[in-house]
Design a protein that fits this description.
57 residues, mainly beta, 1 helix
């Protein structure tokens, strides 16, 4: 995360990184995270936004 944060890089993941979002709120910014799926021998990358952690009352 530190390298992606410092360089403005896009992160490829299917994880929401809930435990890291408070330190790296840019994970919820449009264009900073791509999801990836491998199907029929081809990788497909799709824009995604990490889901914000749920607030428990």
């Amino acid at each position: 995360m530190a390298i992606a944060d410092e360089s403005g890089a896009v992160v490829v993941t299917n994880d929401n990184y809930i435990e890291l979002q408070s330190r790296h709120p840019w994970l919820r910014e449009s264009g900073r995270v791509l999801g990836a799926t491998h199907t029929k021998g081809v990788w497909i990358f799709t824009p995604r936004t990490c889901v914000a952690p749920r607030v428990r009352s």
